[in-house]
Amino acid sequence: MTDRSRRAVLATAGSAVAAITVAGCLGDDGDGLYEDDDAESADAMGNATSADLASLEADESAVEATALPIADPSLPLSYEPEVLREETISGGVPKDGIPSIDEPTFQPATGADSRMDDGDPVFGVEIDGEARAYPQSILVYHEIVNDDIGGESVAITYCPLTGTAMGFYRNDVEFGVSGNLVNSNLIMYDREDDSRWPQMLGTAIDGPLEGASLEEFRIHWVPWERWLEAHPDSEVLTEDTGFARDYGSDPYGAYNPRTRYYEPESEPMFQPLDEDDRHPPKRMTLGARPPEGPLAFDLEVVAEAGLVALELNDRGETNVTTGEAQGGGDAVAQFIAVYEDRLDTVHLYRGDGDPYAHEDGAIVDGDGESHAPGEVPLESVYAYDAMWFAWMGFYPNSIVVD
């Protein structure tokens, strides 16, 4: 297996506070990162070029027939589905051996406070004004909750091996746990046609909907204390799941504080698709996959700076600034990651070329108007938290802001 970190290059950052590392680089035309200019290395890995991926489309009749909401266009991949199928392994349990929660029950957040410690992680969701929290201590045993919130049928999903909590719209089609993994990541299956969906990719790699992508929504990984303070009227998933589980004991370790499997320096259980040793394997990263190419922001860097801006120009060059997003210049794409202390989370936006700055926990625009980090008037870019090894395994050609 090729270790692409061996040919990583260091680009010049716009601030001494942060550096940007590019593993795999922009093509000469600057169109994006999914096309690798090292064709020999890509062929050796079975890595798909952007030309390959452009023709990777789902069967139109299957897309028309499914009740699942399908994203258009499909999300980009760094590997062809055939390669991902070949890399799929058993997680040690059969299909539905890890049971999804299909009839979840909830209680008011204030009533759940007695069973939760302040630092316990929950997965927070708000849709159309309705807020719910899903404790990590419950999802570690189930991985998928088929729920309805804010008038939407959704799947709340969590993979403990990759540290990823992600939401998908489902239109009443239930998802289950296949029992298989790829790159240590949960492979879901839909109970309509049994297509197989690696959670982190949001794209089917097998079955009638191969090549199709699900519509996603953001789930925030939040300490319980902060979620309760921000959303005191929300509901919380209860332990009344219909299954006998010791929800007070995590089989992998603990997050409060982080121990055993969750320790940043600990190794994955399974060999990742690719390796990059610039960070500890379990260090948390914010990953995104816009059309320009996959991005990875170090969460601790963004939290410290409050705002980190990444600019790409038409010559394939990159620039990073911290604490502010510079206006003007020759950037063809700009991304702004901002930290929200209220929920201890990071939001990602597509910049509009105007200047923005982080001041006293707020984001101030070029007109001097102040905005909450989660309410900046810019286009939101879907992103999610993941363990470093898992993100770089799936997206080894990411621009890395660290």
Rounded Rg: 20 Å
Mean pLDDT: 88
Helix content: 10-25%
Give the termini distance in whole angstroms.
Answer: 25 Å
Low-confidence stretches: 1-31, 35-55
Number of strands: 30
Q: So how many helices?
A: 9
Query: What fraction of residues sit in β-strands?
Result: 35-45%
Strand arrangement across the biggest beta sheet: 1-2-30-19-18-29
- Give a short account of the largest sheet: 6 strands, mixed
**Class from secondary-structure proportions:** mainly beta
Count of discrete domains: 2
- What spatial form do the alpha-carbon principal axes imply? globular
Write up this protein.
The protein is mainly beta and 402 residues long. It has two domains: 1-55 and 272-402, no CATH class; 60-237, no CATH class. 13% of the residues lie in helices and 35% in strands. It has nine helices and 30 strands. The chain has helices at residues 39-45, 50-54, 60-65, 81-86, 109-112, 136-139, 224-230, 299-305, 388-394, and strands spanning 9-15, 18-22, 89-90, 106-108, 121-127, 130-135, 144-149, 152-159, 164-169, 175-182, 185-190, 196-198, 216-217, 220-223, 235-237, 253-255, 258-260, 284-288, 295-298, 307-313, 318-322, 324-325, 331-340, 345-350, 356-359, 362-365, 370-371, 379-380, 383-387, 399-401. The strands form seven sheets. Strands 1-2-30-19-18-29 form a six-stranded mixed β-sheet. Strands 4-15-6-5-14 form a five-stranded mixed β-sheet. A five-stranded antiparallel β-sheet has the order 21-20-23-24-28. A hairpin with a 2-residue loop joins strand 25 (356-359) and strand 26. The longest helix is centred in the first third of the chain and has 7 residues, at 39-45. The radius of gyration is 20 Å and the shape is globular. The model is unreliable at 1-31 and 35-55 (pLDDT under 50).
